[in-house]
C-alpha cells in the first residue's frame, strides 16, 4: 500500500470550498485504486489566522510542512482583512521560496464541453514552465525621497542557476511532448535581465538539437495566445511573465476557475506544492458556486507528481466526462454548484 502524507492548506475564500471538494475526490480515487492511501492533515493558515496570531503561519510552520510528501493549497488572500503583500509573502510565496519550488508548471488546453471564448481555438495544448523563485518578484529595492518626489525602486533578480534550471526543465519536458520550446522574452525593452535570459536560452538550447526553439517577446506572445494558441507546446517564462501568461491561458480555456498548477521542488529536498492558478475569489466566496475543477485538476497534477500518471489521466477523463455532460458552474455559463460538479466526478470515478 502506497501512503501519501499531504498537508492541506485551504487558505482563504473559495479555497475553503474547493480544497475539501478535491480531497473528497482524492479519497475516492484512493478507494477505487486500492493500492493508494492519502493521509491529509489540515492547517488553518489564512488571513483569519493572521488576525488572531499576527502571522500567516506559526514560527515552526515550514518545519511542520517539511515532514509531508506534498502540500495541497487552495488560495491565499483577503485584502479586506490583511494587505495582499503581507498575506502572500507570509504564506504562499514563503513556501514557494523556502522549499525551493523553483518551477511552476501550468497547463492550458482545450477541455471537453468547455467553451473557449476564442472563435477558432483549434486543439491547443500548452505547458507553461514559470520560473518560480526570483525574477521580478524580488525584495531588492525600496523607496527614496518623500511626497511628490517619492520614487519606488524594484529590482528584478535573474540568476544563471535559476534561469538555466527553468530552461532545462522546459526542454526536458518538451522532449516528451511536441518538441518545441518558446522562450518569453522582452530583450527589446528590458536591457539587463532579458538579454541575459536570451543568452542562457541560446546556450541551453544547444544541448537539445532535436527540439525546435524560438524566442518571442512577451507582448507578441500574449497576443498569439489569443490568436493562435495551437502553435505552442512548452513555454518558458520568467516569474511575472509566466504569471500573466497563465491567466491568459486560463481565460482561453474558458475560465480561471479551471486552471491548475504545480510548484515543483526539483531537487527533492522539500515537498512540492499543488495549488490552482486562481485566487480566493472573494466576490463569490460562500455562495457554493466556485468552480472546483482548477483544484481538482491540480489534484491530478499531484497524482502525476507521485508517479500515479494512470490515475491522473483517469481523473482528467472523469473531469471531461462531467464537463462534457454539461455540469458547468456559472463562470462557465452553467448553473451547477461546486457540490454538483464534485459529486458527479466522484460518481464517474466509481464507474471506471
Ligand atoms: P481571483 O482569481 O481570486 O478572482 C478573479 C475572478 O475570477 C473573480 O471574478 C473570481 O470570482 C473568478 N474566479 C476565480 N476562481 C474561480 C473559481 N474557482 N470559480 C469561479 N470563479 C472564479 O483573483 P483576484 O480577484 O485578483 O484575487 C483575489 C485574492 O486572491 C487576492 O487576495 C489575491 O492576491 C489572491 N490570489 C491568490 C492566489 C493564490 O493563492 N494562489 C492567486 C491569485 C490571487
Ligand atoms: C499566482 C498568484 C500569485 C503570484 C500572487 C497571489 C502573489 O497570482 O499564483 O498566480 O503572482 O504568483
Ligand atoms: Mn497569478
From TrEMBL:
InterPro entries: ICDH/IPMDH, IsoCit/isopropylmalate_DH_CS, IsoPropMal-DH-like_dom, TTC_DH. Pfam families: Iso_dh. Residues 5-345 form the Isopropylmalate dehydrogenase-like domain. PROSITE patterns: IDH_IMDH. Its cofactor is Mn(2+); Mg(2+). It is an enzyme of class 1 (oxidoreductase). Keywords: Manganese, Metal-binding, NAD, Oxidoreductase. Transmembrane segments: none annotated. Its EC number is 1.1.1.83. PANTHER family: D-MALATE DEHYDROGENASE [DECARBOXYLATING]. Belongs to the isocitrate and isopropylmalate dehydrogenases family. This is D-malate dehydrogenase (decarboxylating). It comes from Mesobacillus maritimus.
Amino acid at each position: 500500500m502506497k501512503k501519501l502524507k499531504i498537508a492541506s492548506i485551504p487558505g482563504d475564500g473559495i479555497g475553503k470550498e474547493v480544497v475539501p471538494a478535491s480531497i473528497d475526490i482524492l479519497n475516492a480515487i484512493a478507494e477505487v485504486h486500492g493500492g493508494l492511501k492519502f493521509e491529509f492533515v489540515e492547517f488553518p493558515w489564512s488571513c483569519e489566522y493572521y488576525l488572531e496570531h499576527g502571522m500567516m503561519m506559526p514560527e515552526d510552520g515550514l518545519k511542520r510542512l517539511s515532514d509531508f510528501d506534498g502540500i495541497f493549497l487552495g488560495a491565499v488572500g483577503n485584502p479586506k482583512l490583511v494587505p495582499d503583500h503581507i498575506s502572500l509573502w507570509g504564506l504562499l510565496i514563503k513556501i514557494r521560496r523556502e522549499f525551493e519550488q523553483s518551477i511552476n508548471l501550468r497547463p492550458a488546453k482545450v477541455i471537453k464541453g468547455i467553451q473557449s471564448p476564442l472563435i477558432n481555438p483549434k486543439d491547443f495544448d500548452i505547458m507553461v514552465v514559470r520560473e518560480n523563485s526570483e525574477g521580478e518578484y524580488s525584495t531588492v529595492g525600496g523607496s527614496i525621497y518623500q511626497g511628490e518626489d517619492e520614487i519606488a525602486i524594484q529590482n528584478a533578480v535573474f540568476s544563471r542557476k535559476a534561469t538555466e534550471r527553468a530552461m532545462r526543465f522546459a526542454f526536458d519536458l518538451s522532449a516528451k511532448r511536441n518538441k518545441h520550446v518558446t522562450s518569453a522574452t522582452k530583450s527589446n525593452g528590458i536591457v539587463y535581465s532579458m538579454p541575459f535570459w536570451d543568452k542562457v536560452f541560446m546556450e541551453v538550447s544547444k544541448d537539445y538539437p532535436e527540439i525546435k526553439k524560438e524566442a518571442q517577446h512577451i507582448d507578441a506572445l500574449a497576443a498569439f495566445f489569443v490568436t493562435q494558441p495551437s502553435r505552442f507546446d512548452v513555454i518558458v517564462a520568467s516569474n511575472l511573465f509566466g504569471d500573466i501568461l497563465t491567466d491568459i491561458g486560463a481565460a482561453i480555456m474558458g475560465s480561471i476557475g479551471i486552471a491548475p498548477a504545480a510548484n515543483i521542488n526539483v531537487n527533492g529536498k522539500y515537498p512540492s506544492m499543488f495549488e490552482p492558478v486562481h485566487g480566493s475569489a472573494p466576490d463569490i466566496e460562500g455562495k457554493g458556486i466556485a468552480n472546483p475543477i482548477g483544484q481538482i485538476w491540480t489534484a491530478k497534477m499531484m497524482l502525476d507528481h507521485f508517479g500515479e500518471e494512470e490515475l491522473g489521466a483517469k481523473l482528467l477523463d472523469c473531469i471531461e466526462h462531467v464537463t462534457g455532460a454539461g455540469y458547468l458552474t456559472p463562470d462557465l455559463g452553467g448553473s451547477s454548484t461546486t457540490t454538483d460538479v464534485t459529486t458527479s466526478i466522484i460518481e464517474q470515478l466509481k464507474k471506471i
